[in-house]
Amino acid sequence: MKKFIYLNVILLIFIFSPNTISAKKIPNLVGKWEGENIKSTLKKGFVRSKNIVEITEQANRLFKGFVIHKNGKEAFVGVIKSDYKTFYWADSSNDDGKVIGTILKKNKKIETCYLDSGRDAIAGCSILIKQD
């Protein structure tokens, strides 16, 4: 009887151990995301605009896609951090800007913030909702 109790206790410890609990599913970012972008720029001051992002491929924590601008599409590549909430992407343009993102609601809502330093400095963020 004691062996049975010990076995059950060990089994329960294994089932509820932090390693088992922390086994999170990687968020699916593939799809079209839309929202409003607010930014502060040295050239244009304070600006509001529509932001459209399409993530076309994802392999585990790695992804790629494009941002749709009034001048066309700009490709990017990205990665989701091991916390499964923070992500980064770098675009294909010649500027030094980078995007830092946060998953606010898994598979439904993200926030992306863009920072670019220099003479044409820009700082802006968007709350994006996944479109069905």
Structure in words:
The model is unreliable at 6-22 (pLDDT under 50). Helix content is 14%, strand content 56%. The chain has helices at 2-15, 18-21, and strands at 31-41, 45-59, 62-69, 72-80, 86-91, 98-105, 109-116, 122-130. The chain contains two helices and eight strands; from the N terminus they run ααββββββββ. By secondary structure, the protein is mostly beta strands. A hairpin with a 6-residue loop joins strand 5 and strand 6 (98-105). It has an eight-stranded antiparallel beta barrel with strand order 1-2-3-4-5-6-7-8. It has one domain: Quinohemoprotein amine dehydrogenase alpha subunit, domain 2 (Lipocalin), CATH 2.40.128.120.
Task: Summarize the amount of helix as a percent range.
Answer: 10-25%
CATH class: Mainly Beta
Class from secondary-structure proportions: mainly beta
Beta-strand residue percentage: over 45%
Number of strands: 8
The CATH superfamily name is Quinohemoprotein amine dehydrogenase alpha subunit, domain 2
Low-confidence stretches: 6-22
Radius of gyration from the CA trace? 20 Å
**Widest beta sheet: strand line-up:** 1-2-3-4-5-6-7-8
The main β sheet shows up as: 8 strands, antiparallel, barrel
What is the third-level CATH name, the topology? Lipocalin
What is the CATH-assigned architecture? Answer: Beta Barrel
Q: CA-to-CA gap between the ends?
A: 55 Å
Mean pLDDT value? 86
Order of helices and strands: HHEEEEEEEE
Domains, number:
1
Report the principal-axis shape.
Answer: globular
- Tally of individual helices: 2
